[in-house]
Write the structure tokens for this entry.
Amino acid sequence: MPLEMQDRELGKVAVIECLGRIVAGTEAQAIEARVNKLCAGCSDLVLDLGGVTFIDSSGLGTLVRLLSRVRRSGGDLKLCQLSAAVRQLLQLTNLLQVFDVQESQASAVSAFYTRSRLPAEKAGDYCSRVLCIHPSADTLVYLRELLRRSGYDAVTSSNLPDAVVLLKATAPTLVILAGEMQSPRNRAAADILRETRADVPLILLEQDFSRQDAGQAGSALLAAVRSHLGDPGAAQ
């Protein structure tokens, strides 16, 4: 079957889910184009090969070449959820040790956040990491910039499944959750997050937060964040 791909960002890491075959020609060119596009805005990549049934010699060469390219640019590329056939292929070609292979997307993303070589922005510029969960992309951009300019590292997600992965992978010290994601028809998002990491405090935004005055809403939120994490400026 032709190669199908879906990509999304999990914090500062881009994840590409692959389904089908990675072979010479259109498929190899497609995955190379997708990686090149994502590398323009994100240097750390995860290839989820759980749905890949076959890789030929040219396709495998493409993956090795992409790994070298990403690493030369200062990032890294990890593989996850290898099928038995793909894992055997890497073992037979002695390439299993060339790639950083992880069991799941969560472990692959987590490996980026726990690695010893961290860019300055990830390692030293912020005092605490905050996970922000909101269905609105614009509101997430606002929250990210508000927190970063106040000295906190912000990781964002627009949906609960990805947020759970990030909660496990990025070890945030605080979670900010959109009130509208507390659906009465489903299990409350806050309960799911607390089951995942009961030790991480959670701030629940009002449902009309996105429509409130940006200055007032931001000031009130920062006050709540500082009550949990302290003021980064005061520690300098």
